[in-house]
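[job 4417] fold queue: 2 targets
>>> target A
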Amino acid sequence: MSKKSRKKSSKTPSGSPTAKKKPEKTRVSTQTRGAKTQPVSASKSGKAGAKAASHKAASKRLKSSEKTSKPAAATSAVSAKPLEGQTAPAFRLPRDGGNVVTLSDYTGQKLVLFFYPRADTPGCTREAIDFTRLKDAFTAAGTAVLGISADPLKAQEKFRDKHGLGIPLISDEQHEMLEAYGAWGEKSMYGKRFFGILRTTVLIAADGKVAKVWRNVRVDGHADEVLAAARSL
């Protein structure tokens, strides 16, 4: 046999030792890959377990926060007290000028209480000016008018002097009267919820019982509407 034929026969896969070694390399490489993937999968499962645990913890915290928020929701329900036909809640609070005002001061006459959120703000200013404008008409109808907010006395007096208001202004900083008349509760503004004064007006008849309640008051024309109701009693 010639040298060229012997060289060609040595390259054939059937009898060459290199052809037998190739499967071994393939098996080794696959084993190595499998060995490498095992710790990675274990770490992934560990991360998944950690995520599941953190999710459970977050859900527990959410449930606990929901429980703590329930008292606030219950407090807001106070503002929905039915008053019409009931005896008006008594009160004793300071007014502008330093005097004290009580419900008993108005025994035997009709009384309007208008609760406003804050002194010297646009809506509250228009409302107070409207009631001042109609003061004589209310007096002729045998009706007194009081304005109430949680502002301190100094703020009430500044509000009175700035706009020449002729209606007594009561300061209820502790919210006792506001809550008793359902004028304190949950509000929302720009997506945020908070507690504050709900613009409310209450008309008390001469017998001391609540004749009518206006809630979520719109200022325009409101004082005239209240005057008409007072005249009808």
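>>> target B
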Amino acid sequence: MTLAHDVAGNGPAVLLLHSSVCDRRMWDPQWPTLLDAGYQVIRCDFRGFGETPVPDRPYAEAQDVHDLLDSLRVDRVALVGASFGGRVGLEVAARWPDRVTRLALLCAGMPGHVPGPELRDFGRQEDELLEAGDVAGAVELNVRTWLGPEADEATRNRVREMQRHAFEVQLAATEEVPPLDLGEPDLGKITAPCLALSGRYDLPDFRQIAARLPTLLPDARHLELPWAGHLPSLERPAETTALILDFLGETRPA
């Protein structure tokens, strides 16, 4: 199955990987700017998000991304990943290092990371609300947790819409399909330069991951955004897009 996706433009390829709080619509603010900058821009919905249905057989997000790139005949790509999308981006870059030119991570997760107490508590609260049938309450929990103080009401409503849709799609599934076990990826195989952004108002897990990545990868740097929560590309779109463009352009082919 091919992930639902959009592709437009010409030039070096950039693939945008969304957070599990959102879907590919989270990249609406970045889409036109990246196109105007001369990139071929691709964005996709993971399984059970946006327009991609829930899986009907064992699957792996990293393999899905690899297969999407193959179907589009994209050999080399810069990956921009937010949260869960950043975790998938790290795995893709580790499993197929020759395919990834740059890696921009926005408050990313990391393969093998053991959740800390705050993240475990969030998961417990979300599970309790969903098990009680309180989808609206679970949506509001996500909005409160993942958006920082810079997010305006329009942005909060956008996240509400995407998160609610994801819950509705996933809760409607008649059976739970296990992920495909590809084994733990070796992050030491990543060769792409990496920019790891974190937000001052994010949960400690994601701040710690971003700070740790320069110790794990051969060419990585960490930048903490003093104004950001967990979704900086939505909280301050113009500023975050400028950071992404600057990073992508550092080794842009002539």
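[job 4417] complete. Note on B: The chain has a mean pLDDT of 96.
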